[in-house]
Amino acid sequence: MYRRPLVTALDRLGLREGWTCVDVGAGGGDVSVALAEIVGHDGRIYAVDSDPARRDEVAKAAAQHAQVVALTQAGEDLVLPESVDLAFCRFLLLHVVDPLTVLKRMARAVRLGGWVVAQEPITSAGRVAGEPMSMPDALHPDIGALLPAVVRQAGLDIVDAWGESPAGVGGAVGDYLEAMTGVDPGDDPVVLPPLVTVVARRPA
Ligand SMILES: C[S@@+](CC[C@H](N)C(=O)[O-])C[C@H]1O[C@@H](n2cnc3c(N)ncnc32)[C@H](O)[C@@H]1O
Questions:
Q1: CA distance 143 to 124
Q2: Ranges assigned E (strand) in the chain
Q3: Which of 32, 56, 95, 96 most suits a substitution to test ligand 1, by most atoms within 8 Å of the C-beta?
Q4: Is 56 in the pocket of ligand 1 (CB under 6 A)?
Q5: What is the pLDDT of residue 17?
Q6: Is the pLDDT of residue 198 over 90?
Q7: Which domains does the chain have, with CATH numbers?
Q8: By percentage, how much of the chain surpasses pLDDT 90?
Q9: CA of 93 to the centre of ligand 1 (A)
Q10: Which residues on adjacent β-strands are paired with residue 118?
Q11: What is the pLDDT of residue 170?
């Protein structure tokens, strides 16, 4: 469902073959695999997650991509063996105690002039049958609404920022919502939480 905002962001920053990247909060590896497909075998993707169980998931998802290296590390303690061209996170900052700390570590992980891209939701702007959505388990469910400010506070130069939201009645959007929440929205109209994307650079 959220592949389109990912593709838009990668087009916007011009991700190319041979880049080195880190995907922080890699989860099941959806973003890591998408990055690996573009950077090819001359590039490298560090798939970082604080949950050790995710390392096996990423390894499985990225079995065809030897350039993906899965690491167990908290974003707050991010340390990589090399400076990278791009640090990326999606659906991560809503779950961390202090999003600014993680963004600062991501900024430090990229080379001078390198890229930081964050994609985070405004959960309460999502709607089912016109009613706002909520995510009680998340520490910052609406972090997307603050994202440009937090990225700037991390010392990064914002190149572009926008919001994007899948919507529909039944079909793929309904199936996605049911998979995420266990509740079938039936024929109720659904607007999934908009994902705010911020594309930024570390000052050279
Ligand atoms: C909702 S999943 C997002 C997965 C993936 N980025 C995506 O968009 O498909 C959030 C992931 O962040 C990880 N996570 C949570 N807090 C973290 C932290 N402080 N540092 C690194 N990873 C963290 C979780 O273990 C989980 O795998």
A1: 10
A2: 20-24, 44-49, 68-72, 84-90, 110-121, 127-128, 131-132, 157-164, 167-169, 189-191, 195-201
A3: 95
A4: no
A5: 97
A6: yes
A7: 3-124+141-165+193-201 (3.40.50.150)
A8: 93
A9: 8
A10: 89, 198
A11: 86
